[in-house]
Amino acid sequence: MLLVKSLVVGAAIAVVLAVIGVTAMMAALNPSAAEVASTSNEDPAVPPDFYGTR
């Protein structure tokens, strides 16, 4: 019975660590809107250069 209890506890700890790891990875890969806005220096009223000119 002790083996089953330790297996359940170990599985619960593994699930918690997996959720924390996935959350940390998503936070590192997906920057917030404020972070993107602070690093972008483009004027939204001006079209990008790849559209060309008339």
Helix/strand/pairing category: mainly alpha
In total, the number of strands is 0
Number of helices: 2
Reported for the largest beta sheet, the result is: none
Helix content, binned percent: 55-70%
Strand content: under 5%
Rg calculated over all Cα atoms: 23 Å
- The average pLDDT score comes to 85
Q: Which stretches of 5+ consecutive residues score pLDDT under 50? A: none
Distance between termini?
78 Å
Q: Could you state the order of secondary-structure elements as H and E?
A: HH
Form type: rod-shaped
What are the main properties of this structure?
54 residues; mainly alpha; 2 helices; 0% strand
State the gist of this model.
With about 55 residues, the protein is mostly helical. The protein contains two helices and no strands. It has helices at about 1-30, 35-40.
Overall description:
With 54 residues, this protein is mainly α. The chain is built from 2 helices and no strands. The protein has helices spanning 2-29, 33-39. The longest helix has 28 residues, at 2-29.
SSE topology:
Elements: H1 2-29, H2 33-39
